[in-house]
Design brief:
3 domains, 620 residues, Tn3_Tnp_DDE_dom, alpha/beta, 7-stranded mixed beta sheet, Tn3 family transposase, 20 helices, 19 strands, two-stranded antiparallel sheet
Length: 620
């Protein structure tokens, strides 16, 4: 592998790059120890010889040193190293630095030098003032640093002053404890409205529901031959609906063909391969979202200005190279990652491996969601607490507001070393390193402007801005800025009960959507049987499309029922309307209709019917 791929360092440190070259030169050696120095003559005298190091070893992590070097002291260059342990260390470090972006592979897509995807410094200078004006950011590093510092200092003093009145929060041993929010009681009026909905909701099966939404919106318009030529198929709309139902509900072509009886399994598979792509499913989803946004009812649930991101595990077969065991969820599979608007509609979906930190994909919605609903506030579970995510989201103009559960790993930073507080002082640790933020402010802005122009995805940057890198100054700057912004958020979180309630409601909606979309994925024991990553992502998109169709249909029916309810002279208030949800399934028949034919006449049974030309001998 080291011979086939061309590795290149993206930082000033070239130690690992030299180590790879050194390893390749010694690849045929079988001895346990290999020499790291060579001697050369340095003068005219017979004893004028000097030892010259063959390879830079300063990059070796502390934990590996005692296994590699014959000398335990780091300040003494060893004359030999353990070959096998050195090889293992090189591969270990190559993996880490590929993840952090400190090492790249020439010609690679996933592990390319991310700096080449950024805008040039000339483009940066030309567009800086326009971008900062639009984003509400200051153009100079010193002014930006001062602005954030003043915000932090002002809010910390305000929270400290009002803390004695905050009865919901107590501090024990430097850790805050927050009283749980009281559960909202269901009003008699809400019970009456829900009962009316159950009585008036029209029963329907999934395929008829898809047909109704297609009749209203014609969302299959985005499906067609990938080659670009006109479809030469009979009843294309019917075929597209059948295909979406087949893959979105996980029946598979064979079972779908058996259940429907009007189409062949090969026809369904052919439509999926030749007429439908992941991209045009997303376009159909966005078309549905835009139509959904015209209803009045969802406006009682949310403005569309915020969304919650959450992941749920989808099962894959264990004997699958793409399947991974998830520690938190348990079992083998992948993660379906969704952005759900505060008005319940799902804006974007993605399928990612279990081993990936979910939070790195939280900002991709900025580039991949082209619908009319564009949130500027993102909620998430604990996956969104990462400091670099806070830093990047702030510069992108996104308010990141994750749900906070575990405070032990969260640090509140002081604006200055001498900042002290009367009531909340023990929550703070060190102070913010404003120097590194100021020094690399232009580098961070260049990254953000590159994202805004579509040159690079936020997830690409966040995958590189990880704790694997000890040398990446850009990571350190984003982390430090993120710690400052996260401290601002945590102070608001502690002092504002309404904010905590909003975040909990948003994350509850995304978790409810996870259960709702899995309810619709009823075929094949809920297991994605595909082994190809692109096909797996496509199935997640199909399922997302089906879920949004059901949400749209439910809102249509709810609107009709509520309209009839008030026409009968009944009253409705905003509180009742805001407590309703479109994730309704009680009226949906997932499995189709089965009829019993009373006139059916099966053939008579003949127990002694011959099944072999030879006479059967009685068994002993």
């Amino acid at each position: 592998m080291l011979e086939s791929l061309r590795f290149k360092s993206t930082t000033q440190s070239k130690g690992l790059e030299q180590a790879i070259t050194f390893l390749l030169k010694n690849k045929l050696k079988k001895s346990e120890w290999i020499s790291t120095i060579y001697t050369r003559k340095n003068g005219m005298n017979k004893n004028d010889w000097e030892s010259v190091p063959l390879v830079d070893l300063t990059w070796i992590p502390e934990g590996w040193w005692r296994w590699i070097s014959s000398n335990r002291r780091r300040n003494v260059y060893p004359d030999k190293i353990n070959r096998r342990h050195f090889e293992a260390c090189v591969f270990y470090q190559v993996r880490n630095e590929l993840k952090s972006g400190d090492l790249c592979i020439e010609g690679s897509e996933q592990y390319a030098d991310y700096r080449e995807q950024l805008i040039s410094w000339d483009e940066y200078q030309q567009n800086l003032h326009i971008f900062c004006e639009q984003a509400g950011l200051l153009t100079t590093a010193e002014a930006f640093k001062t602005q954030v510092c003043n915000k932090l200092e002002s809010l910390a003093k305000k929270v400290d002053t009002s803390f004695p009145k905050n009865k919901a929060v107590t501090i024990r041993n430097g850790e805050p404890f927050i009283t749980k929010l009281k559960k909202k009681k269901i009003s008699p009026l809400l019970k009456a409205v829900r009962k009316r909905i159950e009585e008036r909701m029209v029963p329907i099966n999934v395929l008829d529901l898809l047909s109704d939404t297609e009749y209203w919106l014609n969302w299959t318009r985005f499906f067609g031959p990938i080659s670009g030529y006109d479809a030469k198929i009979t009843k294309p709309t019917q075929r597209y609906l059948t295909t979406a139902f087949c893959y979105g509900c996980n029946l598979g072509p064979t079972q779908a063909a058996r259940s429907l009886g009007t189409v062949d399994r090969r026809q369904i598979s052919w439509i999926n391969e030749r007429h439908v792509t992941e991209e045009n499913i997303q376009k159909a989803i966005e078309w549905l979202i835009n139509a959904y946004n015209k209803f009045n009812l969802p406006k009682y649930w949310g403005t569309g200005n915020s969304a919650a991101a959450d992941g749920t595990k989808w099962d894959l077969y264990e004997q699958n190279l793409l399947s991974e065991n998830h520690i938190r969820y348990g079992g083998y599979g992948g993660i379906g990652y969704y952005h759900v608007s505060d008005n319940y509609i799902a804006l974007f979906s993605h399928f990612i491996p279990c081993g990936v930190w979910e939070g790195v994909y939280i900002l991709d919605i900025l580039m991949k969601n082209q619908s009319d609903i564009q949130p500027n506030t993102l909620h998430s579970d604990t996956q969104g607490q990462n400091a670099p995510i806070f830093g990047l989201s702030y510069l992108l103009g996104i308010q990141l507001m994750p749900r906070i559960r575990n405070w032990k790993n969260l640090k509140l930073l002081r604006p200055h070393n001498n900042s002290n507080y009367q009531h909340i002082n023990e929550l703070f640790t060190t102070s913010v390193n404003w120097n590194i933020i100021e020094k690399h402010y232009e580098d961070m802005l260049r990254v953000v402007m590159s994202i805004k122009t579509g040159r690079i995805h936020p997830s690409t940057i966040l995958n590189k801005l990880s704790g694997y890198s000890k040398k990446n100054k850009l990571y350190q700057a984003f982390r430090e800025l993120g710690c400052a912004i996260r401290t601002l958020f945590l102070l608001k979180y502690l002092s504002d009960e309404e904010l905590r309630s909003t975040i909990q409601a948003a994350t509850n909606k995304s978790e409810s959507f996870n259960g709702f979309t899995k309810w619709l994925f009823f075929g094949g024991d809920g297991i994605i049987a595909e082994n190809h990553r692109e096909r797996q992502r496509k199935i997640i998109k199909y399922n997302h499309l089906i879920a949004n169709c059901v949400i749209f249909y439910n809102v249509f029916q709810l609107t009709r029922i509520l309209h009839e309810y008030i026409q009968e002279g009944n009253e409705l208030d905003e509180e009742v309307l805001s407590d309703l949800s479109p994730y309704l399934t009680f009226h949906i028949n997932r499995f189709g209709k089965y009829g019993l034919d009373d006139n059916r006449q099966p053939p008579d049974i003949q127990f002694d019917m011959a099944i072999s030309p030879h006479r059967l001998n009685a068994a002993n």
